[in-house]
Amino acid sequence: MTAYDLYLVSPYLAMAALAMLVIVADLVTRRTGLLVGLSFVGLAAPAALSAWQLVDLTGSGASELSAEGSVILYTLSIDRFALFFNFLILAAVGLVVLVSNDYVRRVERLQGEYFGLMLLSATGMMLLAAANELITIYIALELTTLPLAALAAFLPNARSSEAGMKFLIIGAISSAVMLYGMALIYGFTGSTRLDEIAVVLAASPQSGILPFGSMAVLLAVVLLLTGFGFKMSAAPFQMWVPDVYEGAPTPMVAFLSVASKAAAFALVLRVFYIGFDALGGDWWVLLAGLAALSMTIGNLVAIAQRNIKRMFGYSTIAHAGYILVGVAAVATVSGESATFGPSSVLFYLAAYTAANLTAFFAIVCIGNRINSDEIEDYAGMLRRAPFLAIALALALIALIGVPPTSIFIAKIYIFAAAINTGESLMTWLVIIGVVNSVVSAYYYLRVIKVMFLQPAIHTERLGGSWPVNVALGVAALCMIWLGVAPGIIVTAAERAAVVLLAGG
Amino acid sequence: MPTGFSGLLTATVFLPAVAALLLAFGLIRGDRNIRWFAAAVAAADLILSVIVFALFQPGGERFQLVDRFDWITTDTVQASYLLGVDGISAPLVMLTGLLGLCAVFVSFHISNRVREYFIWLFVLQTAVLGVFTALDFLLFFLFWEIELVPMYLLISTWGTGRREYSAMKFLIFTILGSAFMLVAIVAVFVSAGVGSFDMTRLLEPGGALDASRAALPMGVLFWLFFIAFAVKLPTWPVHTWLPDAHTDAPTAGSVMLAGVMLKMGGYGLLRINAGMFPEQLQQFALPIVALGVISVLYGAVVTMRQTDLKRLIAYSSVSHMGLVLIGLGSVAVVGGALTDAGLTGAAMQLFTHGTITGLLFVAVGILYEQTHTRHIPDLGGLANRMPIVSGAFLIAGAASLGLPLLSGFVSEILVFFGAFRAFPALTILAVLGIILAAGYILWMLQRTLFGPRPARWDDLTDASPAELVPVALLVISIVAVGVYPAWLTEVFRDGLEPIVSGYNAGLAGISR
Asked: Nearest CA to B504 among B325, B347, B282?
């Protein structure tokens, strides 16, 4: 390991160090504000280091950092793709830390651990986006999941414990299945490196090296998808989602729903587009099937929900479905639009992060004061908390995909990528997608209706502390910004997605 | 490709939105101040929209007063902020300005959550103006979707009757329609050789989408767009949201809904289905005209049976908007050159129906404010208690049934002239609908305005000064178009000329 390697991994080291620092700081101070401040300000270090790497990348004009390459010990690839997710995850975790300011005051002890675990999980997510090798992927995935399980069980009540337990056990099972898939792949190809796997697979029709042809590898791919599906919260691996969303601390759910999902999709893109590029003709059908299933199950079951956090649980399943449409949009015609699918996924993730964080931050704020997450208790919220109600309404409108908000552009982008493949199956998938968007309008609007039209039961006004309001405002502004002027993020997503083709 | 930035259209479109923002931030306080502020803004927007119409020069550039700047430019996605008017949209912009002002004046009696009410009304106006002027698909769809939210809230908050049900029904129908449009827009965008959301490139002569390079079959694209616009128009069998939404909306909501929002559907049909898919329109003209005739007749028969004034007018709208489809179908004429009568009639029908139905709803709104009933059997003999309102009602009714010298006559006769050459039998059937219209309109007028007056209506008073403004404006426009239609038809004809000459070029190509 050289100094240059240290420079490459420095954002991850900084994140891990920050997590430790926060836990230690908890031993010497009891002030929540200090912990929040330390966690938030500390994020400047990994952000600055990532920015430095990005400037280096831009300066060299290449997708890799230097002539020696940007891959460390064949495990992590620090490229535009990884940096895109670094910034996305850092932004999400920063905002969630701010929003936790009011929430963690509910629990007397373990506040440092709360922030520490969240930062550790974020470290895992950043590593996941950069991981280029199966064992590293596995370790990063566990680093992401285990702290989240502890966080889910953070509140001292039965529902929270149930959420933590469910998350842990289902996570462990899906990890085990995924590990089995990884073992199979190693057995077939003799490598755990994605680039080497790709080389072996590409040569396999001629060399005949694979037993049973590509079917064996496809079995491994299905096993891998089981593990990834859990992280993406895509159907049929979605059983844990509503329970965990309902029981776990709300800021943690916000974090889980955006950052964890983003990291999972980063992983799926890298593994499938780089490692299994040669089998693209086979796995996109699988992913398209998952997409249709997720959209339909998520949206249909969400209609019946009375608890807003459960409703968002199903909503996140549905959005995993929309994003999978983009993942499945493998360009069959190479050329300048070959990155259409992956870049639309990246943009959707950014758009979804902004919109979903806005919604969850408002829910955190409201839930903090009224001690309820039932939709009917949101009656008259426009009178009681105009700022929160309008922000939540905007976020819900965004989640339907109505302009001028981020997900409107994202949906157009993803559907365009899907139709661009020229496959008639993908066109049908798009039609399923838009019909699902219509269905989703019903349950999202119902919340707006309750907040705007029904008379309030109580009349006292609600509000949060200033860090919470700042976080909510920033998320909402980003949501509108991405809808009105998406150019910068679209360009960033396009550049990041090029990495996936260079490897294949 | 039109370029430039004159700013006039941007100002016209966004003036109401800016006013909504001012209201939202609480810069204008007090219900009375808010009402007069709203009136001033709407009047200013009407003046701007009249200026737009006046500055539009038939025979000049196809798209005029263009405002353009690049909105999204990346390697794969190009979209621009592109506003412009041609002969089709310039009159509709003016119509929106006119009805926007009327909507504000008929809302003066609103006393519940006044500030929010006018915010949503203004957002709605910006969205509708945006739809009529946007020449970029992404922008067009953006405005198209934004319009849903204020209308939903206007109906569900300030409506009457089963307002929440009606609002949701309106929303689900429209979103379902626009979902199909979204697929079509995306498919057009990814078709080889397009690569941008610019509508003007596809509208240029010879710039039409090449069937061999389209991402989806051209017929599929045509119908995807058609469904979205047919829901909005609305045409049978996707009209069922309209009577509910109309009946339960507040008066201004009905005025905007019938007056301009239905026109978004007709505008889309003219702009996109006729402008970009000429061959498909010709190919599918028969089913489209059949749908139009069914709408005309079914709407008219159902209207006969209505006892609620607003519901009656709503169903008559279904009947009248069927004429737009019949006008579109006139392009199927074989042998000889296509004249622009049918298409011009369809476009004229959009404008005249907007003013006529607007006036009908204004009159019903004023009646309802005083009587608190729209049930026709409860009314009667109102003419000598409310002479001005009754006069307006009479004029609007007469225009609606197509009396010469009033505007409805002009569009109907043009549609029938145009369509007769293509589909004589169906056109004759549709004319029957007009006879039915005379029946239900006169019967309605007779039962509400004349005959014995129940004693409880003895102390009704006539329209207030604020209510007189929309009545006067709409009566003037109905008569002006009816007496001298050329000032309007010339503009529409100019806008439709590229489409018509495109068809004729195609016809000539076939005969060669």
From this structure: B282
Of B145, B149, B215, the CB nearest to A422: B215
pLDDT values of chain A reduced to their tens digit, one per residue, 504 residues: 677 778 888 999 999 999 999 989 888 887 888 888 888 999 999 999 999 888 887 776 555 555 445 677 778 888 888 899 999 999 999 999 998 888 888 777 778 888 999 999 999 999 999 998 899 999 999 999 999 999 998 888 888 999 999 999 999 999 999 999 999 989 888 888 888 888 888 887 776 666 666 677 888 888 998 889 988 888 888 888 999 999 898 999 999 999 999 999 999 998 888 888 777 667 888 889 999 999 999 999 998 888 999 999 999 999 999 999 998 887 655 555 567 888 899 999 999 999 999 999 999 888 888 888 888 888 888 888 888 888 999 999 999 888 888 898 898 889 888 888 877 788 888 888 888 888 888 889 889 888 888 887 777 777 778 888 889 999 999 999 988 888 888 888 888 888 887 544
Tally C-beta pairs within 8 A across A and B. 93
- The SS3 of residue A238 is coil
List A residues 418-447 in contact with B (Cβ-Cβ < 8 A): 419-420, 422, 427, 430-431, 434-435, 437-438, 441-442, 445
The answer to whether the peptide bond before residue B452 is cis (omega within 30 degrees of 0) is no
Which site among A400, A412, A432 would you substitute to test the B interface, given the most B Cβ atoms closer than 10 Å to its Cβ? A412
| ipTM confidence score | 0.74
| Token pair belonging to A492 | 């960033």
Cα–Cα distance, A438 to B25 (Å, whole number) = 31
Alpha helices in B30-80 (DSSP H): 31-55
The domains of chain B are located at: 8-511
List the beta bridge partners of residue B68.
B82
* Distance, CA of A453 to CA of A467 (rounded, Å): 29
* Residue B69, strand partner residues: B81
A450 contact B CB<8A: no
Tokens of A394: 């905007």
Rounded to whole angstroms, the Cα distance separating A352 from A226 reads 23
What is the end-to-end Cα distance of chain B in Å, rounded? 31
CA atoms within 13 A on the CB side of A94: 19
Distance (Å, rounded) from C-alpha B408 to C-alpha B139?
Answer: 32
- Geometric angle at alpha carbon A432, from A308 and B169, rounded to 5°: 60
Give the whole-angstrom CA distance, residue A123 versus residue A11: 9
CB contact burial B374-383 (16+ within 10 A = b; e otherwise)? bebeebbbbb
Whose CA is closest to B32, among B124, B111, B123, B116?
Answer: B111
- In order of A2, A128, A155, A389, A395, the CA distances from A366 in angstroms are 50, 33, 18, 9, 15
Other CB atoms within a 10 A radius of the CB of residue B458 amount to 9
Q: What is residue A375's DSSP assignment? A: G
Tokens representing residue B195 in the block:
């690569």
